[in-house]
Amino acid sequence: MPNSSAWISKLDRAECIEIYKIRERLEPLALSESSANLSPETLVRPEDVFLCIEAAGSIDEFLQLDREFLSYEGAHMPQLAQMIHKLWNTTPQYPHAFAASVGSAGMAAVHHEHRLILEALNSATANSLDLSSAAISAAPACNWSDTTRCWPE
Q1: Closest CA to 138 of 49, 38, 28
Q2: How far is it, in rounded angstroms, from Cα 99 to Cα 95?
Q3: How far is CA 20 from CA 86, 89, 119, 125, in A?
Q4: How many CA atoms lie less than 13 Å away from 13 in the CB half-sphere?
Q5: What is the pLDDT of residues 69-118, one digit of tens each?
Q6: Nearest Cα to Cα of residue 119 among 57, 64, 111, 77
Q7: Which residues, 6+ apart, have CB-to-CB distance to 60 below 8 Å?
Q8: Half-sphere exposure in the Cβ direction for 74 (13 Å, CA)
Q9: Is 31's pLDDT higher than 50?
Q10: Phi-psi category of residue 76: left, alpha or beta, with phi > 0 → left and psi -120 to 50 → alpha
Q11: Cβ neighbourhood burial of 16 (10 Å; 0-12, 13-18, 19+)
Q12: Better pLDDT: 44 or 53
């Protein structure tokens, strides 16, 4: 098709915050729904990815691994997965800006959040727990009342 190309609109701060708040609600649901389909064997990959995330040598490597870690295909809910992926694709430039701006303390918070997710998954697998109030919301890496560090200039 001539003269066609991808067009990505720039979000304002309020739109970006709205998308991240929606993700903070949908991703725990996907995590919870995934937990029913997990076994100790299927948790090996998220644990491996988590270790690679902590050792990532670049922001691009971190972001690629982070997205893989936060993929909840085990939920078997295609509409939910599609919504989450759409939200991820709506904000591709902002995770990079966030990761570049937060420094080691901010990345420690992200790693802590990932650790909580793994603990919740392992707990659910071992005990058949409901993860509807999953750990991903317990310690968000970005404080929405102070978004200056999360917002790309």
Answers
A1: 28
A2: 6
A3: 12, 12, 22, 27
A4: 10
A5: 877 667 788 899 899 989 988 887 778 787 888 777 788 888 888 888 88
A6: 111
A7: 96
A8: 21
A9: yes
A10: left
A11: buried
A12: 53
Phi and psi torsions of 127, nearest 5°: -120, 5
Structure tokens at 136: 């991903």
Q: Which residues contact 72 (CB under 8 A, 6 or more apart)?
A: 27, 30, 31, 33, 34, 80, 81, 84
From 15, 153, 52, select the one nearest 96 (Cα to Cα): 153
* Contact status, residue 136 vs residue 78, Cβ threshold 8 Å: no
Residues found in the chain: 153
Helix or strand holding residue 83 (H, E) = helix 78-90
Q: pLDDT category, 127, cuts 50, 70, 90?
A: low
Q: Which two tokens stand for residue 145?
A: 């009342």
- Token look-up 């991820």 returns 88
Query: Is 12 a residue whose pLDDT tops 60?
Result: yes
- Predicted pLDDT of residue 129: 45
Distance CA 72, CA 82 (A): 11
- List for the chain the helix, strand, coil content (%; round to 5): 65, 0, 35
